[in-house]
Design goal:
The chain is of the alpha/beta class. The chain is built from nine helices and eight strands.
Length: 207
């Protein structure tokens, strides 16, 4: 089944101001989110496993794929739909081999060279960025801008998703690069009405 990368939500509980993660993700899906990545940095493996298990149940109900960030073991343990890794994580070829052929493998890239490497070594899609300055990830490096985003998209034949600082104000500029979707954290989870924010973003994207 082809994956719809249009509106790709990456979870970050620090954005929720004490609200429930599962409730927020459910509202986001109801608003139009097409893919969910579970990202947890500072919790135990057991806690991550338990959250992932519950998240899998939730997204399955809406037929939305669940991608696990970084942690191959968790992705396999809960039979998630896929894994997303970055430049500092497991080597792409190893991750592809262990994950198996039927799962989605995403790879973070910041330039054309990394994008070509990702495509050659088994990535199913690329997360390209950070596109604009962002407050939700501290370790993202210099923003690549929409010009480089377009170069990445034109260099590969697999789907490309833009990430980093994307929101209502710059969405049309990002869409003009020809990429396949946008990956968001704060523009959705940082809003007071998650469902409405998601709906507004997806409508603008599909316009």
């Amino acid at each position: 089944m082809p994956v719809d990368y249009s509106l790709y939500l990456v979870s970050d509980r620090s954005m929720l101001k004490g609200r429930n993660l599962f409730q927020a993700v459910e509202e986001a899906i109801k608003g139009g989110v097409t893919l969910v990545q579970l990202r947890e940095k500072n919790i135990s493996s057991l806690d991550f496993y338990n959250i992932a298990l519950k998240m899998k149940e939730l997204v399955n109900h809406y037929h939305v794929p669940l991608i696990i960030n970084d942690r191959l073991d968790i992705a396999l343990a809960v039979d998630a739909d896929g894994l997303h890794i970055g430049q500092e994580d497991l080597p792409l070829k190893i991750a592809r081999k262990l994950l198996g052929p039927g799962k989605i493998l995403g790879y973070s890239v910041a330039n054309r060279g990394q994008a070509l490497f990702g495509e050659r070594n088994g990535a199913d899609y690329l997360g390209a960025g950070t596109v604009f300055p962002t407050g939700s990830k501290a370790d993202t490096g210099e923003p690549i801008g929409t010009g480089n985003l377009q170069k990445i998209k034109q260099a590969v034949s697999i789907p490309v998703v833009g990430i980093g600082g994307i929101g209502i104000s710059n969405l049309e500029e990002v869409k003009a690069t020809g990429i396949d979707g946008i990956s968001l954290i704060s523009a959705i989870l940082g809003s007071n009405d998650v469902e409405a924010a998601s709906r507004k973003l997806i409508n603008l994207w599909r316009k």
